Amino acid sequence: MNVKEGLQRVEQLALGSKITRLTAQPLKYLLGMAFMKIIYPITKRGIMVKARTFFGADLQLVLPSGMDIYLTGGKSHVSEIRLARFMINTLKEGEQFMDVGAHLGYFSTLAAHLVGTSGRVVAFEASKNTFAFLSKNLQRLPQASCLNQAVSDENGVLSFYEFPILYSEYNTLEIKQFEQENWYIKNKPSKANVTTITLDEFIAQNHLQPDLIKIDVEGAEYRVLMGMQNFLKTTFKCPIVIEYLSAERHNTAHQDAANLLRAMGYKSFIIDPEGKLMAVPDLNGYLLRNNLESDNIVFQKNQPSY
């Protein structure tokens, strides 16, 4: 099974019924659901497991946050499936990928598989706890490296907020966006100081020429972009992928990020089910029409050619 067929299998499991997922891996499904529904609500403690991804890498995960990878072999949200397909279509052997907000390293390891040992992958993760898993997942990949730092608009130290494991994908520099969520009251974050770095400085110091950059930093996207303006002004070939929230989710920071990119000549594209790009200038309208809370948006200067 090649990587495209593997992702199609992930999609089939993700879109299928509970019976479909149970039939595919009965023991894993029963153990996963028992932990999610019975054990975790009592203990509030995650459990470490290993899961084989659709592209053949073994990832160290902590349940329940990595449950979709554990059960399907990949990130199962439709936007994440489309992003994986776009990466498969886009990244070539020998190219460079930067993952800002890498979490457990799913997209970083996928990129490492695609660019091969002649390419390069650099992953950033600010959470100390999450970084421990990211580091393990990348340690056997000579083309990949990771840094336990937050990417921002200046070098320094900032407050970083870490949620319990079930909500760890929401770890952020920008906490206010979550304070009205129903789950927030019972899952308040801990606060820690993290060192910050700018991409302009990091790219220059390490003589990098990224071919694709993914930014998923829960509302701090604008800060990241402000710290890489030199790169954005001078590059023409590197798409920037950003998770973009709907207006209902207080997306001022995401609108600011999109406006900054547009001011530098970038156009916005959604990823279609085949992993190809479709121009969508009105992102808020697109999310509203399709009843979406968020989506991965690709910004690039040149028109895609297929």
TrEMBL record:
GO biological process: methylation
UniProt-recorded name of the protein: Methyltransferase FkbM family
Domain Methyltransferase FkbM: 99-267
Classification via Pfam families: Methyltransf_21 (PF05050)
Matches recorded under NCBIfam families: fkbM_fam
Molecular function GO labels: methyltransferase activity
Keyword vocabulary terms for this entry: Methyltransferase, Transferase
Tree of life domain: Bacteria
InterPro entries attached to this UniProt entry: FkbM_mtfrase, SAM-dependent_MTase, SAM-dependent_MTases_sf
Organism of derivation: Haliscomenobacter hydrossis (strain ATCC 27775 / DSM 1100 / LMG 10767 / O)
